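#lab-general

N.A. 3:47 PM
ok so I finally got the sequence cleaned up, no stray characters, all 141 residues accounted for. can someone with queue access submit it? mine expired

B.Y. 3:52 PM
send it over

N.A. 3:53 PM
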Amino acid sequence: MAKKKLAAIVKIQIPAGKATPAPPVGTALGPHGIAIMDFVKQYNAATEAQAGTIIPVEISIFEDRSFTFILKTPPTPVLLRQKAGLEKASSTPGKTVVGSVTEADIEEVAKIKMPDLNAYDLEAAKQQVRGTARSMGLKVV
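B.Y. 4:20 PM
back already:
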């Protein structure tokens, strides 16, 4: 079988298990001519265990209008907000501290994010997560 030719790669962030053909899914995939409902059903089935969390997805669309998708790990700020029990981060990071996370929380988030980070080891990943926490107005204790 000949290799399919890639037409586009679309990256979107959708709540797990709650994708609908409405925007942002419809507006991102519509111009490429793929069956939006097919994607929505497959995505919801693949993410139903993580319901409520935002899951980024990278969709590879081929010239014959078929597609494949890869699920990524949730964004670091989403995971940190869950650990700190916050609705949103600080509007003035560096000046206002809105919450705190423990070193164990940082390590747990780093382990979850490790496949998607450009870090060689866990310590480097923890440094990236600490930086994100600081930029959100969270204190690491």
